[in-house]
Amino acid sequence: MTLTIRLATPEDGESIWQILAPVIAAGETYALPRNWTKEQALGYWLASDRQSFVAELEERIAGTYYLKANQTGGGAHVANCGYMTAGWATGRGVARAMCAHSLDAARVAGFRAMQFNLVVSTNRRATGLWQWMGFETVGLLPGAFQHPEHGDVDALAMYRRL
User: Fold this and answer.
1) Tens-digit pLDDT profile for residues 33-79
2) Which of 59, 67, 110, 153 has its CA 20 to 30 A from that of 161?
3) The pLDDT value given to residue 136
4) Residue 141 CB-density burial (10 A; 0-12 exposed, 13-18 middle, 19+ buried)
5) Second-level CATH architecture of 3-114
């Protein structure tokens, strides 16, 4: 299995959309409008305030992530990322590889820490992976996420120094 990660290009838009669309529509892991159009979703994911990357596995785009400052001004030294993996690539180490890559990319970009602001507590794969990657839960946001199946569920703020 050869996995490579590179900066996203405009030509990757359709492949990125194929990953984003089902995750956004499911509404289980991201606090994004479930009815976003392709243009809205790609506009968010590929916005000019972030670097966007794709992970390629078996010559196909298997995942994507973005890296940006978590806040402006006094909080700009802390990075923030969002990650999504294609359904066909789940369980194959893509998210772990993207997280490791993002930690390195954040260091290179001069960030001193990384923070995830809203990790849905029912997303056990993500919470377990982020903990394994060295992130600590630094806050609990009771009922902060409206899950389509479970109703209001907790969200976690997770943090790691670089």
Assistant:
1) 999 999 999 999 999 999 999 999 989 999 999 999 999 999 999 99
2) 153
3) 98
4) middle
5) 3-Layer(aba) Sandwich (3.40)
Structure tokens at 13: 């838009």
Please, what sign has the CA dihedral across residues 56, 60, 61, 63? negative
pLDDT at 148: 97
59: left (phi over 0), alpha (psi -120 to 50) or beta: left
State the pLDDT at residue 8.
98
| Four-point Cα dihedral 48, 31, 154, 161, nearest 10 | -10
- The residues of the chain scoring below 50 in pLDDT are none
- Which amino acid type is present at position 115? Q
Q: Tokens 């995750």, residue?
A: 23
Comparing CA positions, the residue from 50, 43, 49, 87 lying closest to residue 65 is: 50
Read off the tokens for 137. 């839960």
